[in-house]
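Practice record 12: protein with magnesium ion.
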Amino acid sequence: MERRLFGTNGIRGVVNQDLTSEFVVKMGLAIGTFFNGGQLLIGCDGRTSSQLFKEAMISGLVSTGCSVHDVGCAPTPAIQFLTKHFELDGSVTITASHNPPEYNGIKVNSSDGIEIPREDEVKIEQNYFNETFRQVPWNLLGKVYERKHVLNIYLDAIKRHVDVGAIKKEHYRVVVDPGNGVGTITTPYLLRELGCEVITINSNLDGRFPSRLPEPALENLKDLASTVKAVKADMGVAHDGDADRSIFCDETGTLHWGDKSGAIIQKYILKTHPGATIVTPVSSSKLVEDIAERYGGKIVWTKVGSIIVSRKMLEVGSIFSYEENGGIFYAPHLPVRDGGISAALMLEIMAKTGKTLSQLVNELPKYYAVKAKIKCSNDLKPKVLDRLLEETSKYERLTLDGVKLFIDNGSILIRPSGTEPIFRVFSEAKTEAKAKSLSEFGMKLVRDLIKKSQ
Ligand code: MG
């Protein structure tokens, strides 16, 4: 069997179980060997283990002759932007994104700031397993440079892509919930520079994530919703642990999944870029198709995974993409998901249309969605998926990634998570009752197949 270390978004594991400092040093050697003595940027999120792993990674990289530009704690999209901005050969981010606090991980980016493609992951995995490391003599070791105060470069770049004057005029009141993640050191400052009155919650960087889990799932964002209502804010925005995703709350205190915020931005972009190509993974709502049909855009479906989406955007020249989990990709800035630019774009849309966020949401076609998940060990996933493909052949379906079944004007997407030992079941329909019944049907199907496969 092919031995793999990289999942959907880099390498992830539980600290000091799957992911130890010894492992990270060895990965540093494998990654540094791949970059062959290049200049790399490195940064990390605010997890309790991130500094430790960043130092272990630097140790491996420098041993191979790579020089390292250390930006310290920074959002994943800032690290990606700065890699391209400083014209470096690549970068490494120590982060486990939205995973619970006991996890950490490693993401590797190319010189274009986008995570490396699968074929390069294979080369690094081969270096790791074969232990073919480029360990250089003492006089050829890489250097370590501390790069302080660079986050402003990232924030200034975002501001160049939105109408700052139009946003400033509105003096929006915005609640920001970075969930104690690294968004705490960028988004509140960005929005203040856009003339907003910013109120923050869970906004001290804390790797224990004491206030809520790092995943901006709606059930984790009740404090954001109640704060938006209490302070009569125009908008609320929450990030995941590394601030590449944004989930929005409208002025009535209603939280919205990324499908809706993504569709609002998609509509705005298609009005100014008619005929544009929108890349989106199979996990997206039918909304993406409805908006493309109504405003003239072309849809390209992909497998789930931000790397696949980013690389496909480059391939087909797409300006914009989004994921249901709150990932917004805006290519004029960088075709990677970015929590900061999505908040800025949403404010620009509100300012330019003169509409509230709830009005913008209410203008969209209505779908009801139910998101559920069921535990399934990583070993069992392939077996369950094979059986799922057999059992569902009678339905109209997409098998690009997991199985997406189209039933009664609704859909159920059943797919194994690439980062966690779970199957995700996303259901969608025109009524709430139908969405629930589709979800129950999908959950029962997977539960039975997991039992049969054990
Ligand atoms: Mg993330």
